[in-house]
Amino acid sequence: MRKSLQRLLFRKTCKHLLQLNFVMMLLFLLAIAGVGCSAKAKQKPASSGRILEILVVYDGSKTQTHALPAVEEVFESIQPGLNQAEARFDLVQIRESAFSAIFQNYHSILKIKIQAEASEESIKIQRDKWAHPQLFVEVTAPSDSSANAFIKEKALTLQQLFYSNEYDRIVMQFPKGATKSLADSLFQKQGFGITLPSNFYLAKQQHEKTWLRCRDEEKEMGLLSAVIPYSDTMMLKQERLTTQCDSLIKMIPGSRPLSYMMVVDEYPTICTQTAIDGCYAVELRGLWETKNDLMGGPFLLYAVPFPSRDKVLFLYSYVYHPNQPKRDMLMQLEAIAHSLKFAVTTQ
Prior knowledge:
By secondary structure, the chain is an alpha+beta fold. The protein has helices at 2-21, 23-35, 39-42, 69-75, 144-153, 155-172, 180-190, 238-248, 327-337, and strands spanning 53-59, 90-95, 108-114, 122-127, 135-141, 201-206, 209-215, 220-229, 260-263, 270-276, 279-291, 296-305, 311-320. Strand 6 and strand 7 form a beta hairpin. The two termini are 38 Å apart. Mean pLDDT is 86; it is low at 1-41.
């Protein structure tokens, strides 16, 4: 009886949270998913551009020489959860007159179209318009000022659209089948699959916890997965997630004897609700450090309930790259997490 009541409360809580916070975001993500990738799209040239780079094409008044202030405010705002300031996205800004074929292969394109005859602001989304994979978003508005206000209003939705495109592009670049045995092991032992790049290897495994690692002399990325029985909805709240995260990552040692990873208490964690593979999920960002050592960096944690609602998957990832930018490395780990599938088949 108690377990049935827990499941009912869990489903009601998740449904309420999703309805409150993610209606607009999910509508646009569904729009992307609904378009799909046709066989014809696969024949198009490979898209270009760096990680988290957006080509902004401005088609507006002759006096406007660059993108609207709102575009820079929304996309070049500081990425939360990093221990040094880095913008969310990098912008390459051009006018419509310069938008030649050489630019049309960009993987992420945002076009701002000012039309005085437009009755209202609108967003148009296309996948693989000129290249593959590619996201083309066109914002139309009757004036610069209305476009500016509209972009600010839809900031979260626009950011999530381009983040989702980054997830797809990053994962598609991983060599197929290179880590199939590792992915199969995760499914058999923990009941989920993710797509991994070829340079990840199994560092440690105990009970229902697995630590995967990728490192060289200068930097390191890692993933720690753990499956924990579901107790109540409180385990998905920020304070409990932070405590749970701190407990889990003690499994990861530092470079010195008796050193281990821990959450930085002095830096506030950032908690948001999202969706992965159509499932409700909670995201936690913050900083980690090592006890009895001098290592540290940003981390990203996803808590994702299993479809059966009796277990929760904790997928923790971290970056170590002293005195260097970390945004792009963390985005690669974020893309891996968003490749999560609660399914029998794994990539």
